[in-house]
Design brief:
alpha+beta, Mago nashi protein, 3 helices, 20% helix
């Protein structure tokens, strides 16, 4: 007995970046200003190579690379475009706490390119948080480091 069949609806095609394979498409940098916090730099190239470099509080450097699946890559690009992350403003505020880091998100989709720097606390709110977490889910190396000891809890 055949109840019903309907063809699968085609998924809308994601506009992937039109850049050379060795071009950095998305990067996330957190350079710690406190001795007890780690620094992280994550780079995703158009070839889908993801390179994560971490500096621990004791100065030890570690770099790990892997290839991201086509599906995960397309989902990230689609999410960052949908959130319109390039329209986020960079901060104009002065540092409020001596140990606060100023993470930077860089995006290069070929047709749009941006660099956004905001203080830790600014990345924890609204669309900025959604943009940062979209990339953090892919690379798995963290989003914004814990608040420094001299900053009150949010």
């Amino acid at each position: 007995m055949l109840l019903s069949c309907k063809p699968a609806e085609p998924k809308p095609e994601v506009a992937l970046p039109k850049v050379e394979p060795d071009t950095v498409v998305v990067s996330w940098s957190v350079i710690s200003r406190s001795a007890g916090r780690r620094s992280t730099h994550v780079v995703l190239e158009a070839s889908r190579e993801l390179v994560t470099t971490t500096r621990s509080p004791d100065g030890t450097m570690m770099t790990v690379s892997r290839t991201v699946s086509e599906e995960a890559y397309a989902k990230l690009i689609e999410k960052l475009r949908a959130l319109d992350c390039c329209s986020l403003p960079s901060t104009a505020k002065d540092r409020a706490y001596p140990g606060e880091a100023k993470p930077q998100l860089e995006i290069n989709f070929g047709d749009s390119r941006c660099e956004i720097e905001q203080w830790d606390r600014e990345w924890r709110e609204g669309r900025a948080q959604a943009c940062g977490f979209a990339f953090a889910r892919l690379h798995g190396s963290g989003f914004v480091p814990d608040p420094p000891v001299d900053e009150p809890a949010p």
